[in-house]
Amino acid sequence: MWEFDEAVEVRSGVVDGIETPEQFLWRGRLWRVCAVEAQWVETAAWWERGVIGSGVGAATATAVAGSSAAVGVLDADWGPQRAVFRVEAGCGRHGRREMFDLAHDPDSGRWQLERVTDR
């Protein structure tokens, strides 16, 4: 597994009322999403939210593994949220496939590539 923090261009569509990635451009290559393996919502860690003495020691995520159903609901007090999608995507004629974690910030509309895992 490789960790990244790179902006990517994503074309998305709506599945079951949720915006999900369909394809993305990363380092000059077009990757087509074959399957959304999991999706979840992450909130900013307490030290990034500016909350001191809250007793919360780490980022909180609600996982919805293997489902394109509605993402878990978190309290509004938890601060900024972003959706993360673990997708299987293929590139090129030979059908090379890998797993990607793509994060979407709904406030800015930006997408980030966070992880890549070989299949």
TrEMBL record:
Write down the InterPro entries for this protein, in alphabetical order. DUF6504 (IPR045443)
Tell me where in this chain the DUF6504 domain is found: 4-118
Highest taxon, organism lineage: Bacteria
Protein's UniProt name: DUF6504 domain-containing protein
Query: Upper taxonomic classification of the species?
Result: Bacteria, Bacillati, Actinomycetota, Actinomycetes, Propionibacteriales
